[in-house]
Amino acid sequence: MAAVKWAPVVGLLLLLPLLPSASSSAMLLKLHGNVYPDGHYCVTMNIGEQANPYFLDIDTGSTLTWLECDAGHGSCETCNEVPHKLYQAKQSKFVPCANPMCDALHQDLGATKICKNGPQQCDYETRYLDGSGSVGVLLTDKFAFQTANGHNTGSDFAFGCGYKQVKKGHKQKVTVDGILGLGRGSADFVSQLKRQGFITKNVISHCLSTKEGGYLIFGESDLPRSSMNWVPMAPVLPGKPNHYSPGQATLQLDAKALDAKPAQVVFDSGSTYTYLPRRLLTPLVHALVRSVRKSLRVVKDPALPLCWSRSGGFKSLDDLKKEFKSMMSLKFENGATMMLPPENYLVIIPNTGNACLGMMPGMPNSDMILIGDITLRGQLVIYDNEKGQLGWIRLPCENAKSISAIFSRI
Description:
Blueprint: E1 15-17, E2 26-34, E3 40-47, E4 52-59, E5 66-70, E6 87-88, H1 100-109, E7 122-127, E8 133-146, E9 152-164, E10 178-181, H2 189-195, E11 203-208, E12 214-219, E13 229-232, E14 244-253, E15 256-257, E16 263-267, E17 274-276, H3 278-291, E18 297-301, E19 304-309, H4 317-323, E20 328-332, E21 337-340, E22 346-349, E23 354-357, E24 359-361, E25 368-371, H5 373-376, E26 379-384, E27 389-394, H6 400-409
Parallel strand pairs: 4-10, 5-6, 5-9, 16-25, 17-24
Antiparallel strand pairs: 1-2, 2-3, 2-12, 3-4, 5-10, 7-8, 8-9, 11-12, 11-26, 13-27, 14-15, 14-16, 14-20, 18-19, 19-23, 20-21, 22-23, 26-27
GO molecular function, one term: aspartic-type endopeptidase activity
Organism: Eleusine coracana subsp. coracana
GO biological process, one term: proteolysis
């Protein structure tokens, strides 16, 4: 997960059966948001006895689902200003420290379990790559789901009550209430769905629109598997047990490797942009600057470090494709290739009309390629935890009908 600029998001939870196969089940959730200006794709989850709605940023880079919440003090001075009323935690909902779910959570986080506040609660602290994080307590409460026959059912799921996200006096107005943890682990939301029988296969799929919204799929359905690119999931990374990695790849521009040495790749839907080691980002920037048309000018834009302007501005993805001809790609060790046209590395800034590079320098000592929303959008991406595979195929992700139609003809 990386820091994002949050903007207002509206919408209600849509959880419907999606093309269930004979041996399994799947559920479809509607997404809201975009790469810019929202900086995230989120779902609306209905939580608690009253099924109150909360906006959750989908994050395949972490396992813990959590809400900013009032842990019983009547307020939260170290929480942000969220779009809904803070979730009110009750001690009767706390998960005891000795509960196996507490063990699973800390194993996923790679942390030592310490019952610092007594045996009746499971405390946690999670940090993200951008330095943000959450401190809180694990609890259970009802999540409401709409089933195939139209009835709403509520079942208890474990999630975090985050009571410390910022320092006192540093509140920010944000437009999501928390995180939906979809990472690779055993305490993540989809593992809980499977254990409770909502789905029979631990498979996650998302289709992030290049425009607005998209879809998130839980479980296995009649997806176009034979037409997809598949790569084995890499073994768990040291100290990073909740990351989905398709292994190492070389980054190419117009079929030429920017560096012969491959880099470890991680898929992270909680990150807005894609992050590269400097040994790849520097030659990429130089090559892009050389390759663009003379009519484009490099300009300063407060949104991102490297931007271009043109007469009349950039208004659509078609404008990007007309002006930027370079095709980026990731070549994996098993021969699979992820093709990355301009919309997977450039973003249009509406208020300036500029086109900006959505690839940023990674952590100083990191040699990892972190693939964020900008590069994941415009394609169906599948995280198959049953078969240990990651797959992708280019699809329009604007609505469920278009997805279903494509599935039926592939």
